Hints:
64% helix, 0% strand, mainly alpha
Amino acid sequence: MSRVAKEQFQYCEDMLRAQDKDLWLACLFIPLPARQDIHVIYAFITEIRSASAKVSQPLLGEMRLRWWHDALAPNASEDVRAHPIVDALHDVIDRHDLPRAEFYTLLEAHLVDFYDAPFAHMDELTHYCLASVAAPMRWAAHILKAPESPAFDEAGVSLGLTRALIAPSHKFIPTEFFHDDDTGLEDARHEILQAAKDYYARAERAAAALTLGKEALLPASLVPLYLDRLQKSGDMNKAHEISPLYRQWRLWRAARKNGL
Length: 260
């Protein structure tokens, strides 16, 4: 039973609904009481993902992540725990015995968000996706008592690569693909798009065997919509133009199947 006031969980849901409607909609298909705990996980990662847009200098971003690193310590002060996400997150981590070290790894991975230096190799981008996107899926799956499955890592990397493709700049595109002209950039996008499709296909195959926890995969169920739009238009900006109703329908269909 949670020791945290229900207002803390409501804060996390309201924050998620305001800042990431797709994640919030995906949570609607998660049964209670697990839903409110996963709201906390997603509110935390949304807060971290948005940190780079809230600071004007990389050092300020690093300070913000350092604050979160200290806030997640088991002996964090009561003043720090007064933050509604922090307090609820400690409660969720403790009740579900989530791997606290992976939360620290996620914070470290997001340090690159504050700098313009892109990844050098595809392996680095994949590691970033595993730490920042796939890990929260595994936490959600654990809360839902899902068996261990590669589906969550595969789906998480696919979603992470897709986000890299539709990011406002190409800062997440590894430099190993670059040449001295735009053709290099287009080739890089093609390689990452194909990798995202391959990871998604493997996730689908693994998800077919899941008996519990398929709802944790739902955030990745929108990947085919974005990749299809990217492949047809070649315009990264148009990936953001998929109608909310179509995205909701896709989530509903995935929830009735295997989560993807």
